[in-house]
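Propose amino acids for all 140 sites.
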């Protein structure tokens, strides 16, 4: 796929691909989803390493596998409903773009494929936590 070559918001388009993947794994149990997420993350680090060298850039926009695993992290153990998908998407894109601590530090200081992927995983963790806090607040 050539989503990363889009002149308009390749990271956002990569996140949409993450939504599609989450649709197919949403019914997986904790162990299976965790294994898919772990394998996906390790694969994303490996692919990012290759792409980083190929494009000779610190964090090439053509790499969108980091957004995919970041969104998969955001949706970890959250039921796949249209409302949940939209809220997790908005939260993930917010944290991925704004990069609050430590996401921005990871993005700036870890100059490797690990840094490319890790900042998105942390954005996904933030998104998942905020989603759960808001859902708990609304449910009360």
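Proposal:
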């Amino acid at each position: 796929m050539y989503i990363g070559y889009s002149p308009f918001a390749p990271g956002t388009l990569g996140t949409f691909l993450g939504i599609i993947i989450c649709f197919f794994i949403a019914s997986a149990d904790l162990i299976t989803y965790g294994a898919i997420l772990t394998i996906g993350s390790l694969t994303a680090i490996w692919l990012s390493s290759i792409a980083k060298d190929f494009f000779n850039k610190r964090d090439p926009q053509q790499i969108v596998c980091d957004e995919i695993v970041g969104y998969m992290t955001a949706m970890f153990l959250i039921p796949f409903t249209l409302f949940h998908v939209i809220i997790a998407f908005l939260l993930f894109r917010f944290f991925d773009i704004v990069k609050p601590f430590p996401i921005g530090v990871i993005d700036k200081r870890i100059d490797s494929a690990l840094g490319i992927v890790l900042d998105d995983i942390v954005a996904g963790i933030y998104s998942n936590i905020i989603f759960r806090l808001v859902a708990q607040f609304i449910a009360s």
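Residues 62 and 115 are 15 Å apart (CA to CA). The helical segments are 10-25, 30-55, 65-74, 82-98, 103-109, 113-139.
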